[in-house]
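Is this the right way to post structure tokens for a design question? Let me know if I should format differently. Anyway, here goes:
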């Protein structure tokens, strides 16, 4: 793996971690107690949509 490819992989990973941190800290996604899979999936989509609107 070359330096350029490694840099791309690291930047991509950081972008994903940044999104997860925002979901956890801003929207408290980790504290969700939903047990229904459909409700959890729908709320996760809604949280990501809200986060994108906020940006």
């Amino acid at each position: 793996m070359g330096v350029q490819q490694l840099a791309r992989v690291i930047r991509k990973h950081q972008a994903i971690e940044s999104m997860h941190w925002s979901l956890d800290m801003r929207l408290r996604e980790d504290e969700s107690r939903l047990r229904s899979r459909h409700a959890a999936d729908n709320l996760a989509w809604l949280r990501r949509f809200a986060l994108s609107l906020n940006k």
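Format looks fine. Someone answered above. Worth noting: The chain has one domain: 3-54. The chain has a mean pLDDT of 84.
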